[in-house]
Amino acid sequence: MLRQDSNEDTEDVSLFDASDDESVRKLKKVKIRHPVASFFHLFFRIGAIIVYLLCELLSSSFIACMVTIILLLSCDFWTVKNITGRLMVGLRWWNHIDDDGKSHWVFESRKELKQEKRTSSEAESRIFWLGLITCPIMWVIFAFSALFSFKLKWLAVVTMGVVLQGANLYGYIRCKVGNQSNLTSMATTYLGKQFLKRIIILH
Known about the structure:
Layout: E1 2-3, H1 22-30, H2 35-58, H3 62-88, E2 91-97, E3 103-110, H4 122-148, H5 152-177, H6 180-202
Antiparallel strand pairs: 1-3, 2-3
Helix pairs in contact: 2-3, 2-4, 3-5, 4-5
């Protein structure tokens, strides 16, 4: 069942309910139901990082390396946004323009009531979130490295990586945790707990 709200109000849905049947739960953990989607979820983004790291060894042409990286990043953005998120974790985000010309962002999450009807596994979920979070962090590191080493020609390329992969990360976090107020509340709660722990330790 899909829940959506064009006003960016999304419901925080539990995607991974505990199963009463231990054997079924273990099977869901290890089985990858969508191996092709899992492969391409990592292929384009890891490929872009490898080309960036080895571009000076693979080719002397900056233009060829830049075009290759941007093509890989673009393919990754489209694949993760439209295919792997829906198949691997039951999440989707998108944008549409209404008749009045107003832009609306929609964040959807699928809630499945029975473990037997789930279309994704915990292994796929780990693969999805690991790739989704790790790669944008690497592009941020590349951006600072290019900036501080004065490789300004590469700054546009790594900025593209940060923007495209960061957009997918933000969109899926919104799908997972709900609307902006929920996201802010979670961050505030986490910081509050960390602050209290430090106070307890100091005393």
